From TrEMBL:
Pfam annotation, one family: HTH_3
PROSITE patterns according to UniProt: HTH_CROC1 (PS50943)
Domain HTH cro/C1-type, chain residue ranges per copy: 7-61
Keywords: DNA-binding
Keyword DNA-binding attributed: yes
Protein name in the entry: Helix-turn-helix domain-containing protein
SUPFAM superfamilies: lambda repressor-like DNA-binding domains
Length: 153
């Protein structure tokens, strides 16, 4: 997949028009057209702006071997959120987990039932962690208020 095809596919995956992407990035619509349709490679600054706006990595845009845009967009968004919430160390740990899970599915001998069990277990851990975090990090004054509001219903 070419640079232009990746830009277009990522833009469409985010339901953005060229006009909207131009507004997000500060890059002219004409330039976006040449990137997508003519395969022109922009300057480094514009590549960075596009990657940021489309929630993909610069490496992804420049690597001719990458072809799965949606999974790359999802992964980059997940890592950005992990970095925002937990810092660089949390993002690094999240990336390591993604790598291990990816390896498990790419080269592992898991059938569809085993994959379903894995995802159910992962979801249970996520929901449990979310509940524990809410109880641990929500200030008591808000927890009491919430309990009172629920008992009034």
């Amino acid at each position: 997949m070419t640079f232009g095809e990746k830009i277009k596919e990522a833009r469409l995956a985010m339901n953005l028009s060229q006009t909207e992407l131009a507004q997000l990035t500060g890059i002219s619509e004409r330039s976006l057209y040449t990137y997508e349709q003519l395969g022109t490679i922009p300057r480094k600054g514009n590549i960075r702006k596009l990657a940021e706006a489309l929630h993909v990595s610069v490496a992804y845009l420049l690597d001719d071997q990458e072809t799965n845009t949606q999974s790359h967009i999802d992964e980059d968004m997940f890592l950005a959120e992990a970095r925002e919430q937990f810092g660089a160390k949390g993002a690094k740990e999240a990336q390591e987990v993604l790598g291990r899970v990816s390896s498990l599915f790419a080269g592992g001998d898991l059938d569809e039932d085993a994959k379903d069990v894995f995802f159910q277990a992962l979801m249970a851990v996520y929901m449990d962690s979310k509940k524990n975090a809410k109880e641990k990090f929500t200030p008591k004054k808000y927890r009491k208020h919430k309990k009172l509001a629920q008992s009034e219903i």
